[in-house]
Specification:
Chain lengths: 519, 218
């Protein structure tokens, strides 16, 4: 009961929990920045290092966390969650982890707030420091940059784990009992990354340019909510500095006593209810909508995670077809109840939902969907504009269907030497005349359609690749595979066996010497 | 009071021994170190701040956080280095274990020396494997990284059981509980020891003892 807890203890506990929540967010987000973290130990207490740990406060992150908490504290049924997701440069995204700070009803009345609870919260933060380096997302975040970035989102309320795909794993960081309930910190993380590992992102060729239709007529949206280097929330106080924790008058406990608590000297705690700003308690906007379930998408690892709630995929005929915005905009109703019905802001662009009945309101989306980078962050060497560069030099630009004017001059389309019937225009990546017969020897029954394979040009060789392919499409069967000949040779083999054995026995020494060289 | 004992086992390649041991020992010490105590009047004390830093391993796909204290790092590296040398000199079937023991000192009257009473012991059993091809080494890098992730999760789980910890000492007793020799952080009193088992399964120490006994028996 609250009456068992003195008002001072209650105030202290609330403050501890609040700052614990803020520090938890800092640790998690900083561990996903992509850099190694280093803070110094100090033998003299400074009064601003909560839980006796040197954890820097990045103002933007604190601001976001306070906004999500909106003056409340984690309580039963109201958990603070930090969602870590990955977003590729094509706009596909995937949730990687959800870190949850929860409170349950199991109280520990006997525990001393300003001493034991504080120290245990400190221990829990140390455990969090250790565990954040151990989940699969850590290695991914260390390699973020050109192909993908790691984003975070903080929300308060019910934990949403559906975006993690099937078979996600949970690791419990730790628990601390308090007189008001037991605080639990845990992480649920996607595991199908584990098969891909970071190697997938190291060795795959650059994303940009492979799927051509994503880039035709639609340069990488520079007006998207991803902000380079600086955290900005559009529509809000651009350029405003966020109050750092030190500016507030809340000082952390630094004095302890070896004597019983009644003799505890005044601990310089001055509790100020935080003046937190906007935000409802349920800002549960999913940050990113999934990209399409494109079977040929090079990042198939994104696909399985979304199987849970994905509406049926738009059928994908050939890759060469129009660059569809619809393809990118597959709405993932992670939790439909949380979507707002507001129209998407212009900054969403075509990268996100096309479904008009569902969308996100502009500014909260912008607030939440950011690349989290500090001033020295993932994009410091590579301004985001460079991400768009690749769209200018895609390998198959000449086959882009929209570039109609190129096709007249395209030797592929109008082959000078081709004896075959002129085909209709085929400027696409995958030729639709890929004809001929997939089955062997019945091509005579089909209308001859020109086969225009990629990569070959007529003016170099007298016989182009298409002709070669067609001519050698139906080779004769291997003689050894035909049954009659097989049977004959079997008989011959049996007859010749004794002779062969004799020969081999003569050469036994040679064989032995050879075998020895192998060992 | 019973001493809490935790045992972890890892199989590593020779060149991974040091990093794997340091990762585990540093993680344990991160949880078992506080800031420096500054005692004030009226029996109160304040605590300094512990910083952390990330360490990337060169031979393992793994990163761990350790306490930002060069002195502590040096002490651990020295102990692990000795362990590694002993392990590698023992023969090709290197099996050994390194123990990190946290203890309290109990002052005894003269002429008896102070007692060291352990309250928590972490033992890491190491099995050294020899790999031939580069591909095997690459796989080993990743596998050992994953194993270390599991070990760290185990360590954290034990730490958060909130079992026995020595009571916070008064100023006069602080050296019986904490190692106050470092200038920036204050770990609980600890010692590191190791034991190498040769390929015959018996430890080197027992072999030596037997030899001496046999010699004396003549």
């Amino acid at each position: 009961m609250d009456t068992d807890l003195s008002s001072q203890d209650r105030k202290d506990l609330d403050k501890f929990i609040k700052f614990f929540a803020l520090k938890t967010v800092q640790v998690i987000v900083q561990a996903r920045l992509g850099e190694k973290i280093c803070t110094r130990s100090s033998s003299s207490p400074t009064g601003s290092d909560w839980f006796n740990l040197a954890i820097k406060d990045i103002p933007e992150v604190t601001h976001e966390a306070k906004k999500a908490l909106a003056g409340q504290l984690p309580a039963v049924g109201r958990s603070m969650c930090v969602e870590i997701s990955l977003k590729t440069s094509e706009g596909d995204s995937m949730e990687l982890e959800i870190w949850c700070l929860e409170m349950n009803e199991k109280c520990d009345k006997e525990i001393k707030v300003s001493y034991t609870v504080y120290n245990r919260l400190s221990l829990l933060l140390k455990s969090l420091l250790a565990i954040t380096r151990v989940t699969p997302a850590y290695r991914l975040s260390r390699k973020q940059g050109h192909e993908y970035v790691i984003l975070y989102r903080i929300y308060f309320g019910e934990v949403q784990l559906s975006g993690l795909g099937e078979g996600f794993q949970t690791v419990r960081v730790g628990t601390v009992g308090t007189p008001l309930g037991t605080i639990t910190l845990s992480c649920a993380y996607r595991i199908n990354l584990a098969f891909m590992s970071t190697r997938q992102f190291e060795r795959t060729p650059p994303i940009m340019g492979i799927i051509i239709d994503h880039f035709v007529d639609r340069p990488y949206p520079s007006s998207s909510p991803m902000h380079p280097c600086n955290y900005r929330t559009t529509g809000e106080d651009n350029g405003a500095t966020y109050p750092s924790v030190e500016d507030s008058q809340e000082v952390c406990t630094t004095s302890f006593s070896t004597s019983p608590p009644s003799q505890l000297s005044s601990s310089r705690l001055s509790y100020q209810p935080a003046a937190l700003g906007v935000g409802s308690a349920d800002m549960g906007y999913p940050v990113i909508f999934a990209g399409g379930l494109n079977a040929a998408h090079p990042h198939q690892l994104i696909v399985p995670g979304k199987e849970g709630g994905i509406p049926p995929v738009l059928s994908q005929p050939a890759h060469g077809t129009q660059a569809d915005h619809e393809r990118m905009a597959m709405c993932t109703p992670l939790d439909g109840a949380l979507y707002s019905a507001a129209t998407p802001s212009s900054s969403e662009d075509t990268e996100t939902v096309s479904n008009s009945s569902e969308g996100k309101s502009g500014s909260p989306h912008d607030l939440l969907e950011t690349i989290f980078v500090r001033k020295v962050g993932a994009f410091v060497n590579k301004p985001i504009n460079q991400v768009t560069m690749a769209s200018l030099d895609i390998p198959f630009a000449m086959f882009a269907p929209k570039n109609v004017e190129l096709e007249d001059n395209d030797p592929m389309v109008n082959p000078p030497d081709s004896p075959d019937v002129e085909s209709p225009l085929q400027g696409s990546l995958h030729s639709e005349g890929s004809s001929g017969s997939s089955t062997g020897n019945t091509h005579d029954d089909f209308v001859m359609v020109d086969f225009k394979p990629a990569f070959s040009k007529d003016d170099i060789l007298p016989m182009d690749l298409g002709t070669f392919y067609r001519e050698f499409q139906n080779p004769p069967q291997l003689s050894s595979l035909s049954i009659d000949i097989g049977a004959q040779s079997m008989a011959e083999d049996l007859d010749s066996l004794p002779e062969k054995l004799a020969v081999h026995e003569k050469n036994v020494r040679e064989f032995d010497a050879f075998v020895e060289t192998l060992q | 009071m019973n001493c809490r004992s935790e045992v972890l086992e890892v199989s590593v390649e020779g060149r991974q021994i040091e990093e794997a041991m340091l990762a585990v020992l540093h993680t344990v010490l991160l949880h078992r170190s506080t800031g420096k105590f500054h005692y004030k009047k009226e029996g109160t004390y304040s605590i300094g701040t512990v910083g952390t830093q990330d360490v990337d391993c060169d031979f393992i796909d793994f990163t761990y956080a350790r306490v930002s204290s060069e002195e502590l790092d040096r002490a651990l590296r020295k102990a692990v280095g000795e362990f590694k040398d002993a392990l590698r000199n023992s023969g090709s079937d290197g099996i050994g274990q390194i123990s990190l023991e946290f203890y309290q000192k109990k002052k005894s009257r003269w002429p008896f020396s102070d007692e060291c009473i352990p309250w928590e012991v972490w033992t890491i059993k190491v099995n050294v494997v020899n790999l031939v091809s580069e591909q095997e080494r690459q796989i080993c890098r990743e596998k050992v990284g994953e194993k270390l992730c599991e070990k760290l999760i185990n360590i954290v789980e034990v730490m958060n059981r909130h079992e026995y910890l020595p009571k916070m000492p008064t100023q006069s007793e602080v050296d019986n509980v904490f190692d106050t020799s470092l200038k920036d952080v204050q770990p609980y009193l600890y010692k590191i020891s190791y034991q190498i088992t040769d390929s015959l399964g018996s430890s080197v120490t027992t072999t030596m003892r037997r030899l001496i006994k046999d010699t004396l028996a003549l």
